[in-house]
Amino acid sequence: SVSPGSSPGILTLDGSGEDISTMLSVGEGDRVREVESFQIPNSLGWFYAATTEYLGFIPYRDEGKVMGLAALGEERREKNKWVEPLSKVLRVGTTSYEVDPIYTKFGGHFFGHLFTDEMVKMITAVDPAATPIAYGDKVMINGKLSSKYQLETYVDFAWAAQELLERAAVMLARRLVREQGQENLCVAGGVGLNCKMNGEILRQSGCKNIFVQPASSDSGTALGAAMVVAQRHGDNVRNPLNHVYYGPGFTNDEILTALKGCKIPYKQVDDPSIEAADMLEKGKIVGWFQGRMEFG
Question: What global pTM score does this model have?
Answer without folding.
Answer: 0.87
